[in-house]
Design brief:
The chain is of the alpha+beta class. It is built from 19 helices and 9 strands. A 4-stranded mixed beta sheet has the order 1-2-7-4. A 3-stranded antiparallel beta sheet has the order 3-9-8. α9 packs across α11. The protein binds protoporphyrin IX containing FE. The site of protoporphyrin IX containing FE (HEM) has 26 residues, from α5, α15 and α19. It holds the Pfam family p450. One of its GO terms (biological process) is terpenoid biosynthetic process.
Length: 499
């Protein structure tokens, strides 16, 4: 073996290299080191759950004011990214839309939604793409929804489709309304809801789709309701009315009984079970007295798809219809409650009502789903310079975004005029205003909902003068829940406007 030759240059080089490597080991942050978003301190086991309070969107808004519009919380051990500004929402729902295109799976949605077979909770993938395209292209496409007449014209075929949808959706609304008691105080004689209710006959007297039987049941129900209000009250409970005004008739027609008089959650569960059983074993279209002719309704389309497409089982109809119930009832009635609440608080706006601006402003202040729909990161991704690990749940605080002073002047005030000369829309392209979400997982029911809200508000405002009962200070707080209803039902006095 050759003797080791002393070489000072080589020795210096080796020594320098070793020193550099050691310095690197001491000071260099490994490349895997991440830059997580700011987090409020958390407790062992529960993480930040104790900070949510009963109105999570408000609690998260307060936390975001301290920790920033992109913050990382922990619900138990689950990391949750909370996004509270238009910019950061754009990054999640546009820049990294695919990375955030899945939903977290909750035990409840697995059980209630047929193992997440509905559009809303299905994980991102082939099945979700397929059923979402059914929703977007076949059930709720713009052409079909636009064929509903405008708020001022009476229906034709397009309207029939709308009317059937409303009726299907009504089944759930009436069940939901079982939770909400309507206490109606003294009754002024000028109070008339007949006109209002018969104006809802726009939904029922389209003749071509509903048989006389269902019309009869509807009229009976309408008469019952009118009597109830006449005999009992002073103020109209708009909250309850929005949830039930077309419901009992269809519940009777479809299920043979009505649920709106139920008093507790047990009945609600029974009703939901009935409903699901009913949807599962019977062709709803056969059971509901709807004349088929050339009319294509939701159920027709779904059944045709099931017949033609082996990848969609009849079982998938149930979760898809549940999407319509969940998507189309509580949300729309919540939106209506808030629009009318704001109009009653701001009579100046009622006088020069510009529907589109009023609806946008109401949705800005009171998005029916304040936290939109939860998402999950499918891969590691950077949001606003922060590293977000795969598997992190994401909550977008639409309520906070709508009230962010960085995007809105006088953000806590109801000023529909701000939309009069503005191009900001609520269809998911302007991230300051995203009550329907955005991107791939955005709501497919936008146009449908806006048409429905406009129709009801137009009927209410053009046929009646509305005011609050004397001495009533409108409580504008919301209750906890996925949809942010008013904390107290909306009671208002209506006097008919002579035509
Ligand atoms: C005022 C009315 C409505 C509001 C405010 C609303 C709001 C929303 C929001 C915030 C989301 C989550 C979006 C996201 O994660 O980006 C959503 C999803 C959804 N909505 Fe709506 N919605 C309304 C009406 C409807 C209607 C009428 C339907 C159906 C008839 C519907 C069906 C759905 C479905 C199926 C999804 C899940 C989409 C997916 O995960 O791919 N919604 N909605």
């Amino acid at each position: 073996m050759e003797d080791f030759q002393y070489n000072p240059i080589l020795l210096t080089l080796v020594f320098s290299l070793i020193s550099l490597l050691s310095l690197n080991l001491i000071f260099h942050k490994p490349s895997t080191k991440t830059n997580p978003p700011p987090s409020p301190p958390k407790l062992p086991i529960i993480g930040n759950l104790h900070q949510l309070t009963s109105l999570p969107h408000r609690a998260l808004h307060s936390l975001a004011k301290k920790h920033g519009p992109v913050m990382l919380l922990h619900f138990g051990s689950v990391p949750v990214l909370v996004v509270s500004s238009a910019d950061s929402a754009r990054e999640v729902m546009k820049t990294h839309d695919i990375a955030f295109a899945s939903r977290p799976t909750f035990k409840a949605s697995k059980k209630l939604l047929y193992n997440c077979k509905d559009v809303g909770s299905a994980p991102y993938g082939e099945y979700w793409r397929h059923i979402k395209s059914i929703f977007v292209l076949q059930l709720l496409n713009n052409k079909r929804v636009q064929s509903f007449p405008s708020a001022y014209t009476v229906g034709n075929k397009g309207y029939n489709y709308f009317s059937i949808l409303l009726r299907i959706a009504a089944l759930t609304a009436c069940v939901v309304s079982a939770f909400r008691s309507a206490s109606i105080p003294e009754s002024p004689s000028d109070l008339r809801v007949c006109t209002l209710l018969s104006s809802s006959s726009r939904f029922s007297k389209d003749g071509e789709t509903l048989t006389q039987i269902s019309n009869l049941k509807r009229e009976e129900e309408t008469a019952l309701l009118v009597n109830k209000v006449r005999e009992a009250s002073g103020a109209v409970d708009l909250s309850a009315m929005f949830a039930t005004f077309t419901n009992d008739g269809i519940a009777r027609a479809a299920l043979g009984k009505k649920y709106s008089e139920s008093e507790n959650g047990k009945k609600f569960l029974c009703a939901m079970t009935d409903l699901m059983e009913f949807l599962g074993v019977i062709n709803i279209g056969d059971f509901m007295p709807i004349e088929r002719r050339n009319i294509h309704d939701f159920v027709d389309i779904l059944i045709e798809i099931c017949d033609d497409d082996a990848s969609i089982q009849r079982d998938s109809i149930k979760p898809l219809l549940l999407d319509v119930f969940v998507g189309g009832t509580d949300t729309i009635s919540t939106a209506l409650e808030w629009v009318m609440s704001e109009l009653l608080q701001n009579p100046r706006v009622m006088e020069k009502l510009q529907f589109e601006a009023v609806i946008k402003e109401s949705m800005r202040c009171h998005p029916p789903f304040p936290l939109l729909g939860p998402r999950i990161a499918r891969e590691d991704v950077r949001v606003k310079g922060y590293d977000v690990a795969a598997g992190t749940m994401v909550m977008i605080n639409g309520w906070a975004i709508g009230r962010d002073p960085a995007s809105w002047d006088e953000s806590d005030k109801f000023i529909p005029e701000r939309f009069l000369n503005s191009s900001i829309d609520l269809r998911g392209l302007d991230f300051e205003l995203i009550p329907f979400g955005a991107g791939r997982r955005g709501c497919p029911g936008i146009t449908f909902s806006i048409v429905a809200i406009e129709i009801v508000i137009a009927n209410l405002v053009h046929k009646f003068d509305w005011k609050l009962p004397n001495g009533v200070d409108l409580d504008m707080n919301e209750i906890p829940g996925m949809a942010a209803h008013r904390v107290v039902p909306l009671l208002a006095l209506a006097s008919p406007i002579s035509e």
